[in-house]
Write a structure and sequence with these properties.
alpha+beta, two-stranded antiparallel ribbon, 9 strands, 3-stranded mixed β-sheet
């Protein structure tokens, strides 16, 4: 087969309708893949941000608990008779963020009057709309404006110490924990 015959066969193959359709379909599929890969990247970035926010919240809660436990351990071990001390703090809830809101209220009252001037029907309607106030970050994402952080609620405190079996030491530790954390004595348990 000569070069001319080979080039003639290649031209015939390229000019066939099937080959053109395959090229067009391949091109469309390529464009679709590019579009979907961009969409997948943006959704994975959103998912990563949500996971970071969730992990940040649980990390800050764990840091709060660790700080409370170490502060209580230091305080309790300095009480006369307590000795070596271990402290466990449990929480009812995690840290809560309060966001700034804007509320619009619309109150409307209507009356139907008869021809002789008497009121026959009164209707009242209350409409309210609540929106979060948002701000744009440096990277352009919108976030709700945070007003305050509410610390987690303490569920209970367990203190294990060498002097935990002595009633006088138990009372001193219970009083110290109650005062430090503003909890009731029902939420504090002291043992040896």
């Amino acid at each position: 087969m000569t070069v001319e015959e080979k080039s003639k066969k290649i031209k015939e193959f390229l000019l066939k309708d099937k080959f053109r359709k395959i090229i067009v379909i391949a091109g469309v599929l390529g464009i679709a893949l590019i579009f979907f890969s961009g969409h997948l990247k943006s959704s994975s970035k959103k998912r990563e941000k949500a996971e970071l926010a969730q992990n940040g919240s649980s990390n800050s809660t764990q840091q709060y608990v660790n700080k409370l436990e170490s502060s209580l351990k230091e305080m309790i071990s300095s009480i006369k008779g307590a000795g070596n001390t271990k402290v466990l703090v449990t929480l009812e809830s995690t840290e809560e963020t309060v966001y700034a809101t804007e509320e619009k209220k619309n109150k409307e009252a209507t009356e139907d009057k008869t021809t002789d001037g008497q009121t026959s029907k009164k209707r009242e309607s209350d409409d309210s709309e609540k929106k979060y106030i948002t701000m744009k970050d440096a990277d352009g994402t919108e976030r709700a404006l945070s007003v305050t952080q509410i610390q987690p609620t303490i569920k209970g405190v367990v203190v294990v110490c060498e002097g935990g079996n002595q009633p006088e030491v138990q009372q001193k530790i219970t009083d110290a924990v109650k005062t430090a954390l503003n909890v009731t004595s029902k939420k504090v348990y002291v043992t040896k």
